[in-house]
Amino acid sequence: MSSSNVREVFFMKKFKNMIALLLAALLVLSLAACGAAVSGSQTTTDNKSQAAALNTASDPVTDSNITAKETTDSFSLTSSDGSFSSSDNSYIISSAGTYVLTGCLDGQILVEAGSDDEVILELTGCTINCDTDSPIKVLSAGKVEISAKSDTENVINDTRSVKTADDDAQGEGAIYAVCDLKIKGSGTLVVNAGYNNGIHTTKDLEIQKLSLKCTAYNNALKGNDSVTVNSGAVVAISTNGDGVKTQNTDANKNGETRGDITISGGSVTVYAAGDGFQAAHDFVLTTEEDSAPAVVIYTGSYSGYTASDAETSSYKGVKVQNELNIESGSITIQSYDDGLHADYGTSFDDGTKGQGTINISGGSVTMAVYAPENKTASGMIGPGGWGGQQTVSGADGIHADGTLNISGGSVYIDSSYEGLEANIINISGGTTWVSANDDGVNATKGNATPQINVTGGYLDVTVSSSGDIDGIDSNGSYKQTGGIVITRGPNSEMAAAIDADGTVSIEGGTLIVLGYGRISTGGSVKSYSLSLHSSGSHTVTINGVSYTFTNANTYGATYCYSDGSVSS
Question: Nearest Cα to 563, choosing from 482, 508, 513?
Fold first, then answer.
């Protein structure tokens, strides 16, 4: 087996226990913001030695948590306040009202109500199969709610052949609507879509409370204007496309750009041949009620559902065209491309342009992205896995074309090509661990002068002790006025633990360099003589607080700069 394949298998094996290990580390790692007084001790774990502890067998992952039994009972549709008709196993709903569906239908539910009508479909142990069109299709209504009632199991099967050409007469998904669509309830709904998308609306898609599993040939969940998950348990599976997707970027009635994906509660697990989440505008992970959201993403061959002949060129965990915000909750990513990615400069239909910004202010981000030597691994990282259908560039852990801001929360990048990459990188809080095959942290050329600014928080960077790589690299400048940074790398001017085309300026905080770096100090910053660069466990005390970390490799030397008191 080649070294690239060995590395790939190793990363797949070790990822399952990553969350548990990260949470354990967080229990003992509660870092203060810049300048705050802290007492006690802190324990950190070097990425590479922590990765070695994650060696448990793991094949491409599948889901067994959400299931639903199909019914063979006779079908019935009833309503006490609505109007409908039936013909040849098609039920046509023509007015607002609540409609109760039960039993098995080999046919279609078609909604053709008024433009302001609200239609509620209550699924109470229902199976709908259709091989000619969308099993549930909404051609007109003001709003439609589909509710899986408590303690019921419901299945929607779109058994059409795979879409090969556009056909306006066909619904684009197993559940398809041209109005706002809400999927809710306390029961279970399983959707199987062989034609194209799973659940697709041309407007806003909202999901609340129910257990939902949606498997689709193309996009599992698609709301052209927006997708929102408020609560519940959601499993989104795409065998050939993206997991969750938005499309439109015009302005809504409030002047806001459409195209957002918002996860504000519940659990969402995505298995995608392509991107896990693809937002035409913004992605937001936040908490609006009591329960913080939990998101897990598998892309490419990390998903056990990806078709061997899938044709897609992007396998990112989350990809946005404007801004990506992690405010609370947890997001865990195992991808064959960038874990988090934001594009800069996309022209939107409302006249604005994408900013390419990623903000992490809370919660936890955990990821392993496969990043082979020389970026490509000879085409071995396409959606078919080891077979090598396609080649993608080296996968970054977090990549922002514009600005990356880390002000809180925790970030753990177990494996990557480059760990953090952006035009401007600002670290003001939180705890961040990075392990990378190339540069650990890289401020790259872009719309503005490249900069790395550290004013607070904790940053721990691991790259190899040899080779043409840098632990921290800025194509402009590096400036630190607070926080704690530990960076590792080769011991040469050509490749270093910290490097910048401009200056590396330390005016506050603590910087520990294991390897080489040309440093400019100012203010009250002093240089300390320490020996922390050998492999193994080390403890350093900064302002009375002890920090323990582990080096997997031996580096050339130790350089330490701080505006506080430091000893080892």
Answer: 508
- CB within 8 Å of 463: residues ≥ 6 apart: 435, 436, 437, 438, 439, 440, 469, 470, 471, 488, 489
pLDDT at position 3, please? 34
Do the strands 357-360 and 76-78 form a parallel or antiparallel pair, or are they unpaired?
Answer: unpaired
HSE-CB for 551 with a 13 A CA cutoff: 25
Domain for residue 202, yes or no? yes
Q: Domain of residue 197: give its range.
A: 63-218
List CB contacts of 190: < 8 A, sequence separation 6 or more.
66, 67, 68, 153, 154, 155, 156, 212, 213, 214
Q: How many domains does the chain have?
A: 1
In terms of pLDDT, which residue wins out, 53 or 477? 477
Q: b/e string for 75-113 if b means 16 or more Cβ within 10 A?
A: bebebeebebeeeeebbbbbbbbbbbbbbbbebbbbbbb
Give φ, ψ of 519 to 5 degrees: -115, 140
The answer on pLDDT for 388 being more than 90 is: no
Banded model confidence at residue 35, pLDDT cuts 50, 70, 90: very low
Task: Tell me, yes or no, whether 109 lies in a domain.
Answer: yes
Average pLDDT (406-420) is 94
Q: d(Cα 557, Cα 99) in Å, to the nearest integer?
A: 73
Distance CA 157, CA 522 (A): 67
The pLDDT score that the predictor gives to residue 43 is 53
